[in-house]
């Protein structure tokens, strides 16, 4: 029995050391060349209990095998303006991409949902999306997309007040049933 505990400990330590290790500058440059953010759009949708949500949707792409080797992370910061009350708020969230299927295609969909709360006529007026990996326990940005702002610091300074209700960042990835490129692409459920 003691053998199994030692083996379990070795496996767990191996998993923890694989993520967050120092990544070489050459490898960072290679990853930057393969990682993309695109298709950014905003919309309004009905949430649970008749609550309305502002939604920022987008996708990310990277080389499919890199998801097995690296722990991809996403950070989204949005400026949301209540047009009626003329107040500006910030909503933000960061999370790991999470585990993907073995036949992962390298394509992910994201939906950042912000509840209206007390806002009457909110509209997304600026955003920053950062997608990257951990290197030596530091977040390294591989791709970044911004609208109506020049930096994350500028957005945070323009909208220092956080939204009343917590936003949620949903993730969905694409995969195939088999490794064949001819197979139809399937989307995972949102999580």
Task: Please tell me about this protein's structure.
- The chain has helices spanning 2-18, 25-34, 66-69, 152-158, and strands at 36-46, 52-61, 72-82, 87-96, 104-115, 122-135, 138-147, 168-176, 185-187.
- It is of the alpha+beta class and 191 residues long.
- The chain has one domain (21-187).
- The strands form two sheets. The protein has a five-stranded antiparallel sheet.
- Keywords: Signal.
- Residues 1-20 form the signal peptide.
Low-pLDDT ranges: 1-18
Number of domains: 1
The helicity comes to: 10-25%
Structural class assignment: alpha+beta
Tally of DSSP β-strands: 9
Task: Sum up the overall morphology in one term.
Answer: globular
Strand content: over 45%
Distance between the termini: 36 Å
Question: What is the N-to-C succession of helices and strands?
Answer: HHEEHEEEEEHEE
Q: Describe the biggest sheet? A: 5 strands, antiparallel
- Identify the strand order in the major beta sheet: 1-2-5-8-9
Mean pLDDT: 88
Query: How large is the count of helical segments?
Result: 4
What radius of gyration results from the CA coordinates? Answer: 19 Å
Keywords: Signal
């Amino acid at each position: 029995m003691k053998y199994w505990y030692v083996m379990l400990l070795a496996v767990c330590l191996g998993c923890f050391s694989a993520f967050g290790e120092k990544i070489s500058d050459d490898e960072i440059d290679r990853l930057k060349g393969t990682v993309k953010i695109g298709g950014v759009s905003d919309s309004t949708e009905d949430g649970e209990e008749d609550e309305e949500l502002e939604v920022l949707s987008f996708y990310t792409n990277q080389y499919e095998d890199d998801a097995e080797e690296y722990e991809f992370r996403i950070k989204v910061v949005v400026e949301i303006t209540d047009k009626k009350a003329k107040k500006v708020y910030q909503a933000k969230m960061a999370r790991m991409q999470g585990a993907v299927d073995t036949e992962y295609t390298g394509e992910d969909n994201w939906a950042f949902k912000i509840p209206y709360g007390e806002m009457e006529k909110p509209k997304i007026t600026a955003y920053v999306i950062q997608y990257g990996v951990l290197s030596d326990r530091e977040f390294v940005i591989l791709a970044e997309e911004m609208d109506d702002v020049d930096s994350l610091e500028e957005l945070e300074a323009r909208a220092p007040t956080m939204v009343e209700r917590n936003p949620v960042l949903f993730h969905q990835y694409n995969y195939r049933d088999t490794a064949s490129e001819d197979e139809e692409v399937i989307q995972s459920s949102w999580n």
